[in-house]
Amino acid sequence: MDQTLIESGTDGGAALMPHPDVAPSSGGIATGVLMCVMSMSSIQFGSALSSPIINAYGPAGATWLRLVFASVALAIIVRPKVMSYSRSQWIGVLALGTVSALMTTSFFSAIARIPLGLTVAIEFLGPLLVATLGFGLSRQLLCPVFAAIGVLLLAYDGEEWVGNWPGILFAIGAGAGWACYILLTKRVGNAFKGLEGLSMSLLVAAVVSTPFGFAAAAPHLTAVGLLEIAGLALLVPLLPYVLEMVALRRMPTSSFGILMSLEPAIGAFAGFVILSQPMTPSQMFGTALVVAASIGATIFATKS
């Protein structure tokens, strides 16, 4: 898998800023694996737990509220030097923040309409295509084909199609946004120190989503609701950012990429546990195909 993809996690809308390669510690791989699993679980279970928030405030409102809390919390920690950035740096974070806002809104709009496991699997096609198209017309392109077959199996429960066109289109939009995010992330990550690029892009994303999210969320806000959203913002995306950053310093990036390929399966499991979205054997096989395709892309990238 493309190095940029390997170093990009997702919550259905956010990615980890690239950072300089650091040799994995000899005794920390097991801890890194545990952190990866915790990060993916936090992302997917956090997405599942966001369902009541989405129902209460709508996808745009839920996106805006989460981005506001996450961006303010990270800005307090990172303290970006807003007035010191160049024109090219501002262009980068404006593009990245806009894509992030649209991607997250699309993801929330999708999981409001179709099962979480199907949404994550469709969204995963975006970065998978980014990872494989770089190899040219070769056998590596079979990976997204197998993943697409897996998505089709996920979309049919043996009796009827479980998705609807609006939900599927929103999931495709989230996948396209994730692919664009990956391409923009490398540029922004290289242009800023530490997590300043991530912090600035989240602030931009919060501002971009305000015209749509404020109108949807403001009339329904309560003190209890604000506390719930603050907790979800901690669960996704702040906790996964920290876990993935530390994990990448304890294990090879190829191993990290293979582990992150399990995310569609964890998303399906979170949908089953939290949202009572059952899966048939054929849907489980479809999830396995998506995971296998992502692992295959990672292995091909490692050998290239």
TrEMBL record:
Xref: InterPro entries: Diverse_Substrate_Transporter (IPR051258), EamA_dom (IPR000620), EmrE-like (IPR037185)
Compartments (UniProt record): Cell membrane
Domain EamA: start-end pairs: 166-296
Listed transmembrane segments: 56-78, 90-108, 114-134, 141-158, 164-185, 197-217, 223-243, 255-276, 282-301
Pfam families cross-referenced by the UniProt entry: EamA
Keywords for the protein's UniProt record, in alphabetical order: Cell membrane, Membrane, Transmembrane, Transmembrane helix
Main localization, broad class: membrane
UniProt keyword Ribonucleoprotein present: no
Classification via PANTHER family: INNER MEMBRANE PROTEIN YTFF, OS03G0707200 PROTEIN-RELATED
Protein name (record): EamA family transporter
Organism of provenance: Rhizobium calliandrae
